[in-house]
Amino acid sequence: MPSEEGKLLVGGLNFNTDEQTLEDQFSSFGPISEVFFVKGRETQQSRGFGYITFTNREHASDAMKAMKRESLDGRQIHEDHAGKLIFLKLKWRHF
């Protein structure tokens, strides 16, 4: 099972971007085990963010650094380690 550090949260996605496009954009940094988009329950349309899981956490870090301020399908995307963002959200809710 991949470490959470190998999982990136990618936000700011164009609603028309699909999983294959996202995988193609990031696959040059290393093997990817999963690409998952978050979709609305009723509409099943992308909510503009998703997750990419690399088989190696160093590849995820390399991708995050290289893709900083890059654009995909006409939108500037942003990415961070998924585990870190989840922790920050949980910590913020406790205040």
From TrEMBL:
Please give the PROSITE patterns that the UniProt record associates with this protein. RRM
Q: Does the keyword Thylakoid apply?
A: no
Q: Known Pfam families for this protein?
A: RRM_1
Query: What is the official name of this protein in its record?
Result: RRM domain-containing protein
Q: What organism does the record attribute this protein to?
A: Sciurus vulgaris (Eurasian red squirrel)
Q: Which UniProt keywords apply?
A: RNA-binding
Q: Which InterPro entries match?
A: Nucleotide-bd_a/b_plait_sf (IPR012677), RBD_domain_sf (IPR035979), RBM (IPR050441), RRM_dom (IPR000504)
* This protein's record includes keyword RNA-binding: yes
PANTHER family in the record: TRANSFORMER-2 SEX-DETERMINING PROTEIN-RELATED
Q: Where is the RRM domain?
A: 6-84
Q: Name one GO molecular function term.
A: RNA binding
